[in-house]
């Protein structure tokens, strides 16, 4: 669910400096989905002192032109109001992308993003993610959790995680081998001319033969894992065949094999997802509800009015229906009445989606089969709690 950018965050890790609030709304909402410690700051004469006080790890410059962003950044640097490790991003209009690119190549900014018109929201998230990672380091930056990522097929998500672990494990092994060679070379005794010659010989052998072999191994590992990922993306339904390919490449990696088997057993043991029908004529709110539910591993279907919902209910086994009160063609109360009459006595729990807190109205709806209600607007926790309660006790 989209969170409104926080303007009250006391210790923001990410700050966006802007001139016109209407220009940044799209980009600001994207970052707010990703970063809790985030703040948008209008550019005034006090902006330098605000930056100096908060010391954000990532600073986004969203001035009306790239030129003004460069001037502002330069002023903050000269005044030593930015005098610490940070990651600077310039946001630009499409017509100024070449200028923004040039400023990054010349080392002014660390990256740029075209925010008017707004394209590639995931690229903006990746830029901010890399900025936090580089400026704070892996020891301090926790990264993104799965709830902040778009929902994909469960098998594919598990296999991507597996490949990531394989890659880290193998590249760590290569780094360890390189470190061992360097350490062994440094530990050779000093003193005599013959021993110095032996040390030089070992260094030469390591450089000419061992290091190239390790580098080649590292490249082959990367190429092999890239190939596996490509196969997973196009043919992830053939999970058992891919498992055999991974095991064949990692014959000596028993922990990796155990991880593959564990993932497969976990997938087979999972119960089927519960299906929920969301009936709401407001497309934006409907899609927000759907996104929250799908991130919590529910299957969803959508309807924009009561008549459409009644048609969809026939032949489908829904665990729950979330329904708006005021809709065209057939409102929530009458849809619920018709549902109860047409569903062969089977009681499907219905939870109301409404901004109307009229108790008499909700009570009248409850008399025809309502199991609960969600007031608009509601946050993710409130939505999921109402859904789980209705399914469990409905």
Automatic annotation (TrEMBL):
Q: Please tell me whether the keyword Phosphoprotein is annotated for this protein.
A: yes
Chain positions found as 4-aspartylphosphate: 324
What PROSITE patterns does the record point to?
A: RESPONSE_REGULATORY (PS50110)
**Mind telling me which InterPro entries this protein's record contains?**
Bact_response_regulator, CheY-like_superfamily, Sig_transdc_resp-reg_receiver
What lineage, starting at the top, does this entry show? Bacteria, Pseudomonadati, Pseudomonadota, Gammaproteobacteria, Alteromonadales
Please state what the protein is called.
Answer: Response regulator receiver protein
Keywords from UniProt, A to Z, are: Phosphoprotein
What's a Pfam family in this record?
Answer: Response_reg
């Amino acid at each position: 669910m989209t969170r409104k950018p926080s303007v009250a965050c006391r210790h923001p890790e990410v700050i966006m400096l802007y001139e016109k609030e209407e220009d940044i709304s799209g980009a600001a909402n994207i970052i707010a989905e990703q970063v809790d410690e985030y703040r948008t700051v209008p550019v005034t004469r006090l902006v330098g002192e605000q930056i100096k006080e908060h010391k954000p790890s990532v600073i986004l410059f969203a001035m009306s032109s790239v030129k003004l962003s460069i001037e502002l950044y330069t002023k903050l640097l000269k005044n030593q109001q930015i005098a610490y490790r940070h990651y600077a991003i310039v946001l630009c209009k499409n017509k100024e992308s070449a200028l923004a690119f040039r400023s990054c190549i010349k080392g002014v900014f660390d990256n740029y993003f075209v925010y008017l018109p707004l394209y590639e929201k995931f690229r903006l998230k990746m830029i901010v993610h890399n900025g936090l990672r580089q400026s704070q380091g892996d020891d301090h930056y926790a990264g993104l959790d799965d709830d902040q990522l778009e929902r994909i097929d469960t098998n594919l998500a598990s296999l991507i995680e597996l490949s990531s672990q394989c890659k880290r494990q193998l590249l760590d092994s290569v780094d360890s081998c390189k470190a061992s060679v360097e350490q062994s070379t440094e530990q050779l005794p000093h003193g005599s001319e013959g021993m110095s010659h032996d040390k030089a010989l070992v260094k030469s052998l390591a450089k000419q033969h061992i290091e190239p072999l390790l580098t080649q191994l590292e490249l082959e590992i990367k190429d092999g894992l890239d190939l596996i990922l490509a196969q997973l993306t196009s043919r992830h339904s053939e999970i058992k065949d891919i498992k055999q390919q991974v095991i064949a490449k990692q014959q000596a990696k028993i922990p990796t094999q155990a991880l593959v088997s564990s993932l497969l057993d976990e997938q087979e043991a999972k119960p089927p997802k519960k299906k929920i029908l969301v009936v709401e004529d407001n497309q934006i709110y409907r899609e927000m509800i759907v996104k929250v539910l799908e991130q919590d591993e529910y299957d969803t279907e959508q309807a924009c009015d009561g008549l459409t919902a009644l048609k969809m209910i026939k032949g489908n086994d829904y665990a729950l229906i979330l329904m708006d009160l005021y809709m065209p063609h057939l409102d929530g109360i009458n849809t619920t009445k018709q549902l109860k009459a047409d569903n062969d006595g089977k009681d499907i729990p219905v939870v109301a989606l409404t901004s109307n807190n009229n108790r008499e109205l909700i009570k009248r709806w409850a008399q025809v089969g309502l199991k609960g209600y969600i007031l608009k607007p509601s946050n993710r926790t409130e939505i999921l709690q109402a859904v789980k309660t209705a399914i469990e006790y409905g």
